[in-house]
Design goal:
Blueprint lengths: L8 E4 L9 H5 L4 E3 L5 E3 L7 H13 L5 E4 L2 H5 L11 E2 L2
């Protein structure tokens, strides 16, 4: 997926998602679960700093490491750098 240089989005790797639903508990306005419990992501850009911070928490809380933030590293990192032990940030 190509994104513009100033857009941050949360994405899910459906092949890794195991349907635990932790992400939807952390970020319910962007992540919903299908009838089997697998994550379905709202593809709208994340613009609010609080939503971005919670999106980062959802990425780090995923036990299957199925979530990632996609966008400019500067926009992702400036909101609470070093929030977790894993870093799943992609530039595309």
């Amino acid at each position: 997926m190509r994104t513009s240089p100033n857009v941050v989005r949360i994405v899910v790797d459906g092949s890794r998602c195991d349907g635990r639903g932790i992400c939807a508990l952390i970020l319910p306005e962007r992540i919903s679960l299908d009838r089997w419990g697998y994550a379905s992501i709202d593809n709208e850009p994340i613009q609010d700093p609080r939503t971005l911070a919670r999106a980062k928490r959802a990425v780090h809380a995923c036990p299957a490491q199925a979530l990632a933030l996609v966008g400019p590293v500067s926009a992702i990192v400036r909101i609470r750098p070093g929030i977790g032990r894993r870093s799943r940030i992609a530039n595309r």
